[in-house]
Amino acid sequence: MKEKDMTNFEPYSNFNLKRYEKTFLKKICHFIKEPAIIGGLNGGVSGAIAAFLAVYGYIALPGFGPIIVMGVGVALSVGVITGIAIGSIIGIIVGTIFGFAGDFICRNN
Hints:
Keywords: Membrane, Transmembrane, Transmembrane helix. The chain crosses the membrane at residues 36-61, 67-100. The protein is built from three helices and no strands. By secondary structure, it is mainly α. The protein has a domain at 49-109. It starts with 16 loop residues before the first helix and ends with a helix.
């Protein structure tokens, strides 16, 4: 026999946490994909330009000296790889922040 003022603490059976996680991850991947690719491409190009300029002495890159001594080919490839890594990371961070900000703004309107 139940009391009238008692709260029923039975779990709600239609709540599916895994479904929510999948849709949440799909939203995040949708927000991150394009900025990460754009950031990687931008970082690769700027890394190659920076490595090229460092090899010929127009700019100084701290910690890049031993790589410059190895030659232009090595410096360019290392510059491109480093630029892609840094650009992708920044693209992921920016994409995540703006993705959540856009989602938050759309919910509040």
